[in-house]
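ARCHIVE CARD
SHELF: 3
SLOT: left
DATA:
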Amino acid sequence: MTSPKKVLVTGATGHVGSSAYLALADKPKKYEVYGLDCTRDFSGRVTAANKKVMDIPDDRFHLCDLADFAAIREAVEGMDVVVHMGADPGDDGSWESLLNNNIIGTYNAFEACKEAGVARIVAASSIMASQGHREQEPYKSIVDKRFDEVPENYPVITPDTPAEPRGLYGATKVWAESRARVYSNRSDMSCICIRIGQVERDRPRPPNGHDFFVSQRDIAQIMECAVNADEELRFGIFYGISNNDWRWMDIEDAREKLGYVPQDRAEDNHVY
């Protein structure tokens, strides 16, 4: 019988991290899941449903700061996969916080995983790495809901399209993707980045979000798909969004290489 895969989820008490943790912890025969965060308290955006069932045992929880390399290094020891969700998620976060959490913290996670011989790191990127495309046509017409002005066969944005961050937060995520590429080339570690869309409590916030909405179960699914992707996949950037009618980001690559099959659409909850 195959032993459960050891997986550490950083940012485990956060909005997305808690969903990733629960999706894996729900399958104890497949995964031995650990959590890491700078606090035991839940983020204000964590759903009531997640809070109700979230219970990380003390012997599987690491309370530490992402900027503390020694603590991160200890936490990743013996792991097969690290799902790195920890970050300052604020688009208006201070430079000091973004530097410590999103730059230094991300460097620490990758470097610690390399030293510990972790086989794969699945890192949270963000749709904010592509935010600038929403200001350009034909995507701006989609955002503004001028659907009759959108060409029938408009080109979708793929992970190979140059990034278009519009703030420090988005820029830190582009930097994280670059670090992932470096480590995939200069180590034996597989590095997969997920550009996470707008994760809501299973409904997009009106009036916007219909293009890059992703449900709780879809984001949990793509994270698990990335954990189990073919070991030959050394590097990849994928969009983690639901199957929205007006998405302008490509998810076919995620379907093909990760086996991602989104279950939800923004339109399931709102009429646009």
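SLOT: right
DATA:
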Amino acid sequence: MSYNLLKGKRGIIFGALDENSIAWKTAERVHEEGGTFVLTNAPIALRMGQINELAKKTNSEIIPADATNMEDLENLVEKATEILGGKLDFVLHSIGMSVNVRKGKHYTDQNYDWTHKGWDISAVSFHKTMSVLYKKDAMNEWGSIVALTYMAAQRVFPDYNDMADNKAYLESIARSFGYFFGKDKKVRVNTISQSPTPTTAGKGVKGFDGFISYADKMSPLGNATAIDCANYTITLFSDLTKRVTLQNLYNDGGFSNVGVSDSVIEAFEEK
């Protein structure tokens, strides 16, 4: 169901890889709500994914960009505003990658070159993106910038590895840069802390299936899906949340406030 919440609004969506991606679902929902946007991802991700299919479906253009490269980001913002016909109203940062996780390096034995690369891609890219948007004055007043995060930024999830540190840094950037974006440009900046979601990136975490099952049993409403996250993002892009900013917003079925659930207790009780 569409409510035309984003009619006339323009933006950039980072990170759509395939139909399992939260960014992909968000792009579909933005399109349904009347918004227009450009899609972007790193050149290697564009080759691996199916983004052309999404672009065709949503009548969007694709601009390749390495989100760690300032020249790429400047080109992206310039082209996006040119293609879309004006300043931007929304930006979704849905980027995350840990080489240590991919290569099976334990948290206590990291390859620090890989750590730095993952940090740059997963967290610092958010600062770089906002820096370009801020300096180019590319956002309309009451625009909205959203990045996706996970609760491992606050609590220990052993196999989430250095991605937990990256997400903590990402959330801090949202607050710190969000202050200046709000004060100087009247732009909102928030993060959504999403349930574990079976995306292509998420499935790379060791023990992910058990992880999802546990979170689901711990959450009174069950895990939030990718489409749930997309719908929440739409509300943050809309004018209905004009003074929501600097927040880390949990979209996790209640998981973040549950100490233990009946379902989990039952799993450990002797029969």
